[in-house]
Amino acid sequence: MLGDSKDRYGALSKTLHWLMAVLIGWQLLKFGDRIADGEHWVGQTLVPWHISIGSLLLVFIAARLLWAVSQRQHRPEQDPEIAVLVKAGHGLLYAGMLLMPLSGMMVMLGGGHGINAFGLQLVSEGEEIVLASALGSVHSPLAWALTVLIIGHIGMALIHHFIKRDDTLTRML
Ligand code: HEM
Ligand code: HEM
Fold this sequence. Notes:
The chain has helices at about 10-30, 40-45, 50-70, 85-110, 130-135, 140-165, and strands at about 115, 120-125. The chain is elongated. A hairpin with a 2-residue loop joins strand 1 (about 115) and strand 2 (about 120-125). A two-stranded antiparallel ribbon has the order 1-2. It has a single domain, classed as Fumarate Reductase Cytochrome B subunit (Up-down Bundle), CATH 1.20.950. It has 6 helices and 2 strands. It has about 170 residues and is mainly alpha-helical. The chain binds protoporphyrin IX containing FE (2 copies). One protoporphyrin IX containing FE binds next to helix 1, helix 3, helix 4 and helix 6.
């Protein structure tokens, strides 16, 4: 089923979740530039797609946000005791997924580099923009914060599955 239900996430939510998880994992490989200035296999093959995949992720997160709003009345329910925490955690993940591409674009615009995604020139090169650079300066700290959140999120999913032994993970699989 395409849509969500009280028992499980539907096909579209699952596809968006896992496709974006893979692409965001790919994006985080950009941290690899800190090792030997990116002069290694990962830095030369996967990381150069950073701008293209990041721009695509902006489209995906916009679609995912709209989809989440349309499904909010019939998504799986959370344990009432921790529902507020779970919603806050998922809300922060959404904020991270939206702010990462936006701030990355600010880095590029701020430096006057323009934005080229998959060979398509979305914004042409131009003057440096001080305000955009300032907004872009949150890109790296946000990437660290999102990484911590994702590790916590994966940890919680595994705790549900292997320790609490409930259906939290299987309803997203
Ligand atoms: C979900 C989307 C994205 C994620 C998770 C992400 C993640 C990252 C990470 C982990 C770094 C390395 C930071 C560090 O070493 O401190 C980075 C750097 C960078 N990213 Fe992204 N990024 C995303 C989207 C984008 C987009 C859309 C653009 C541009 C259009 C972009 C442009 C850059 C640039 C220019 C750098 C190097 C400069 C800097 O560290 O400030 N990113 N990104
Ligand atoms: C970049 C990585 C990830 C991000 C940004 C992310 C984000 C999210 C978000 C926002 C939700 C709420 C449902 C939705 O709106 O789609 C969610 C649900 C879920 N995620 Fe992830 N996720 C990531 C990776 C993972 C991984 C690797 C696992 C498994 C080990 C996982 C397991 C789950 C589970 C089980 C749910 C359902 C939770 C529930 O219904 O209470 N996620 N994820």
